[in-house]
Amino acid sequence: MESEAVMCRFHAVYHKINQALDNIPFDKLGVSIEVKEQVELMRMQLKRAKRRTDTQDMELAMDMIVIFSKKDERNADIAILERLANKLELHTIAELKAEKTAIAKLVKQRGGYNETMHQIVDLLGKFKQIAGIDETVSLDGPISTRTAQTCQSPLVPHEFVCPITLEIMTDPVIVATGQTYERDSIRKWLNSNHRTCPKTGQTLEHLSLAPNFALRNLILQWCEKNNLELPKKDNYASSVNYSAEIMEEMSSLVLNLSSSQPNVRRDAIVKIRMLSKENPENRIFIANDGGIPRLVQLLSYPDSNIQEHTVTALLNLSIDETNKRLIAREGAIPAIIEILQNGTDEARENSAAALFSLSMLDENKVLVGNFNGIPPLVALLKNGTMRGKKDAATALFNLSLNQANKSRAIKAGIIPPLLHLLDDKNLGMIDEALSILLLLASHPEGQNEIGRLSFIETLVEIIRNGTPKNKECAVSVLLELGLNNSSLILAALQFGVYEPLREISISGTNRAQRKANSLLQHMSKCEHIP
């Protein structure tokens, strides 16, 4: 906790040093080239001194907010789940099983479920889905009855068992690495945006699935010999030609995007929107067939309905990391921003979600800022629908991880609508607003805009009466502001922050306890408290 306060003070100092170095008139001083090089080296080292630990905390917190607060199931959330699973190191079958056991113990220790436990169990279920495990999470029983039965039987040859489900395979297929899996299981894995072989961890060169007829025949012979019957697969024969048929359909649809017949073109956009939502294979095939440049051209088509379907299709395609770069390279960002300003409500919402998805890449954060994409996002945050406000907040948080974009957001007037979100409890966006304000509070312009007595009073009220997550975010913002301006700490004490702060330092979330203790230590050093 002491080290965290020192780190925060250090970064406040390094910002000031960096600003001072920027303003040195080298030409007028007549300094040598060697001195200039030394100063430039110092500036580079200062720029590298990023607050990665705290930024990762904020990114993790924002991802949790999005997952728990969103009611719609758009594909942007799949990307967030994938990132969240990686951050929490809960993306392999073994890790998920260990976590399930740990949660069961915690429930037993606390004497049952509460709302937080239900949220954790729900999130674990989502992680299992993106890992390709199709099951309902139950803390009271085994992971899967069929799996347990299969694992307990020593008679089943291990090569007949799917590495994902641990069940005997009925429709074995071979992936690019040569490993064999149950078709449904590996397809779920691929549909969850994975591009690696679950067993070996190798990157798959392609996502085609080849039927393993030889192994299936061996399994059938073994079952017949041991008087076992495999579950029926109604779609086994037709599934063999699935990939070829889908690829042919998508190639035709991509060509139809350039059709001179409006109805043909419109139907193609709608179908590509749906196909791009279904699974990662489709997203790759559409991109490889040249679908992205054609879709980007249609963003400027003078029909609001076509614009809406097109920007949503690009949102779905942008889940793929490679497609993010391709979409930006084709010049989509200015056109998406135009729809964000002038499109239908749904088009504006999905444009904001698309900018969030694209801005997962740092170079795209810069592009969105340079193309003036932040003011219309601020406008959506202020005047949009409920879902629009949430999409705008998520995008603005992500974009504000870039220092230049913080300044742009402040100049675009982001702070008044954020303060409104704090006052309007019915919107349920206090955590989102505080997370963005925390980023802006590290910027000098943000400190000047935010550091007013009325805001400090609002923070103290949230620290006193908010949810555990609300309190964590509010304490973090107050600490950031207080380290740069001790008079704000004094104001917070006058508004009665001390007692609730002490309570949080003992019983708050782990991060809230760290922040509260750092704030209490800072208060003591400033001689505001004994």
TrEMBL record:
ARM repeats lie at residues 290-332, 331-373, 372-414. The keyword Transferase applies. GO terms for molecular function: ubiquitin protein ligase activity. Signal peptide: none annotated. The keyword Disulfide bond does not apply. PANTHER family: RING-TYPE E3 UBIQUITIN TRANSFERASE (PTHR23315:SF49), U BOX DOMAIN-CONTAINING (PTHR23315). This is RING-type E3 ubiquitin transferase. It comes from Gossypium mustelinum.
